[in-house]
């Protein structure tokens, strides 16, 4: 089995006591790549450290959209400058998140600032010619429109755990962008419909570890649990699990 996790946070505290063992267990289970997405200033440095230490961890750097809004302009541009100088496989985790909606403490300026930050990351991905791993929550249309009006990473855009509506999924697929499917596809019909809609060539897998475990009795997620996503994709696409894991590994190699 070849397992690829293009969106995980192994730098989070949930792994601080046993990360070495987790990495060993995951390697044994067939995990070949974990793209660790940074979410902020401290996280980005930790991601680079982990990538140096563990060969299967590849660094992606970014700032979680909600966190961007809380940073000063100066802090933000200092971090963009830092990221621009690093050797990374992708920009992520970045995007838009309107979960706080209109009752956020920042008013209209909230969305405007978040969009400005996302724009910076889009042009950074363009400059560095690396793929962009995108988070969008309650902001799907804005995200798609911003990405359509630019061309980061030569079109290598991956929507992470996308939960938007069917016509937006179609628009993403028509643009040729990738859809990264989390383990919880084993229980969420909305994600199963995306797998049905998407050609195999546009599918990738992820965990968002430590979040979104596919097992009700195991709270902390791990990249090896992607086997649940592979099983579900195989069932929907009427292929066998080994085949699916190889196809997704090939997609990973082509995109990154
Ligand atoms: Zn994430």
Give an overview of the whole structure:
The longest helix has 20 residues, at 109-128. 45% of the residues lie in helices and 18% in strands. The protein has an eight-stranded parallel beta sheet, with helices on both faces. The chain has one domain (3-255): Metal-dependent hydrolases (TIM Barrel, Alpha-Beta Barrel). By secondary structure, the chain is α/β, with parallel strands linked by helices. The chain has helices spanning 19-28, 41-53, 65-70, 73-84, 109-128, 140-148, 166-174, 189-197, 227-237, 241-255; strands at 3-8, 31-37, 57-61, 90-97, 132-137, 157-160, 178-182, 203-206. It binds zinc ion. Zinc ion (ZN) binds next to loops.
Q: Helix and strand layout, with pairings?
A:
Elements: E1 3-8, H1 19-28, E2 31-37, H2 41-53, E3 57-61, H3 65-70, H4 73-84, E4 90-97, H5 109-128, E5 132-137, H6 140-148, E6 157-160, H7 166-174, E7 178-182, H8 189-197, E8 203-206, H9 227-237, H10 241-255
Parallel strand pairs: 1-2, 2-3, 3-4, 4-5, 5-6, 6-7, 7-8
Helix pairs in contact: 9-10
Bound molecules: zinc ion.
Zinc ion (ZN) binds at residues 7, 9, 37, 93, 208.
Give the tags.
binds zinc ion; 8 strands; 256 residues; TIM Barrel; alpha/beta; eight-stranded parallel beta sheet
What average pLDDT do the residues reach? 95
Low-confidence stretches: none
Looking at the structure, the CATH topology is TIM Barrel
For the biggest sheet, the summary is: 8 strands, parallel
Looking at how many chains there are and whether they match, the oligomeric state comes to: single chain
Write down the Rg.
17 Å
């Amino acid at each position: 089995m070849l397992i690829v996790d293009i969106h995980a946070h192994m730098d989070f505290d949930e792994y601080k006591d046993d990360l070495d063992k987790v990495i060993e267990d995951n390697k044994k289970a067939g995990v070949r790549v974990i793209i660790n997405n940074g979410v902020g200033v401290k996280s980005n440095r930790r991601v680079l450290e982990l990538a140096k230490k563990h060969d299967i961890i590849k660094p992606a750097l970014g700032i979680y959209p909600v966190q961007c809004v809380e940073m000063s302009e100066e802090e933000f541009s200092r971090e963009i400058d830092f990221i621009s100088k690093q050797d990374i496989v992708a920009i992520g985790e970045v995007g838009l998140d309107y979960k706080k909606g209109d009752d956020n403490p920042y008013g209209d300026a909230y969305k405007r600032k978040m969009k400005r930050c996302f724009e910076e990351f889009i042009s950074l991905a363009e400059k560095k010619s690396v793929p962009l791993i995108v988070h969008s929550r309650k902001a799907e249309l804005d995200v798609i429109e911003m990405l359509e009006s630019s061309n980061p990473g030569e079109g290598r855009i991956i929507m992470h755990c996308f939960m938007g509506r069917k016509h937006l999924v179609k628009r993403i697929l028509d643009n040729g962008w990738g859809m990264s499917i989390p383990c919880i596809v084993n229980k969420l019909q909305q994600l199963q419909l995306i797998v049905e809609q998407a050609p195999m060539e546009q599918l990738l897998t992820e965990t968002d570890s430590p979040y979104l475990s596919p097992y009700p009795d195991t709270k902390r997620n791990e990249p090896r649990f992607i086997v649940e996503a592979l099983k579900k994709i195989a069932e929907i696409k009427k292929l066998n699990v080994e085949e699916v894991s190889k196809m997704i590994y090939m997609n990973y190699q082509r995109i990154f």
